[in-house]
Every structure is written in structure tokens, then in C-alpha cells.
């Protein structure tokens, strides 16, 4: 019975560990040049001040997919070591954002979810949703979106090395 419980726990934890650890075929610690070499259709991006996320610089970008959901992958690097520490995967098919979110929840579990009612400067109400996941290796996955009851303005998954 004990081995059955351990096997069941491993079946739940191992997919999360691998899925949030890197964004294949890139690996944490790669340089921008290495990412561009191994990621299909990746291109170098010039360093710009408005392309900084959580203190990291976006220096490469590539179209890709998560399952059958098209995304733009943006690769962010440490400003000191120039090594990969964060990948921002933004959905390009916004009408499918709800299905994308549901797929991530089915894959990674419920996570820690926050829904916040907000209002645009022009007075239009919308909901901002954030779901956080962590794995046993300590890496962090964050899904976020902004949506009205019928329209998604943005949705993305950020995977960050801790």
C-alpha cells in the first residue's frame, strides 16, 4: 500500500517538476545565443528598457505552442550573467484564452488563484485573473489574464527559475 501511495504521489509531482523547470528545448542557464540556436524560429531581440520583466531582459523571441495553443515565447535573461531565467508565453489566439487557462489548470492543478474586479481608465469593467504554481524544484509558473465576460484582452503563462 505504501508503494502504491508513493507511486501515485510521483505521478502527480513528476509532471509538474519537468513542465515548470524549463521551456523545452531551452534550459535554464543558457545564453541568448544558445537559446536562438536550439529553439526553432527564435530570433535575437535588442535590449530595450521597456522589455524588462521581473528584473530580467528579453533578448530572444520565438513563435511556438503549448499543446494546440499558439503562443509567442519571449526569453528573459539575467542582466549580469546573461543566462536564461524566465520565459513569457503569451497566447496569440485570444478568443481561446479561457480554454488555455482551463488546460493549464487541468495540467498543473488548481494552484493559488486570485480574481480581481478592475475598471479601465475609460470606465469599462473587467476581471484580472492570476494563478500561481510552484514545483518541488522551486520554479514558479504564473498564469495571468484580463477579461470581460465575453472578451479576453490578454493571457499568458510566465515560467521563472527560482
What's this, in brief?
The protein has about 160 residues and is an alpha+beta fold. The protein has helices spanning about 1-20, 30-40, 95-110, and strands at about 45, 50-55, 55-65, 70-75, 85-90, 110-120, 125-135, 140-145, 150-160.
Q: Specify the oligomeric state.
A: single chain
Q: Could you spell the SSE succession in H and E letters?
A: HHEEEEEHEEEE
| Major sheet | 9 strands, antiparallel
- Flag low-confidence runs: 1-21
The Rg value, from CA coordinates, equals 17 Å
Mean pLDDT over the residues: 84
Helix content: 10-25%
Describe this structure as you would to a colleague:
By secondary structure, the protein is an alpha+beta fold. It is built from three helices and nine strands, in the order ααβββββαββββ. It has helices at residues 2-21, 32-38, 97-108, and strands at 43-44, 52-53, 56-66, 69-77, 84-91, 112-119, 125-134, 140-147, 152-160. The chain is globular. A hairpin with a 5-residue loop joins strand 6 (112-119) and strand 7.
Name some characteristics of this structure.
nine-stranded antiparallel sheet, single chain, 162 residues, alpha+beta, disordered N terminus, globular
What topology does this entry show?
Blueprint: H1 2-21, H2 32-38, E1 43-44, E2 52-53, E3 56-66, E4 69-77, E5 84-91, H3 97-108, E6 112-119, E7 125-134, E8 140-147, E9 152-160
Antiparallel strand pairs: 1-3, 2-3, 3-4, 4-5, 5-9, 6-7, 7-8, 8-9
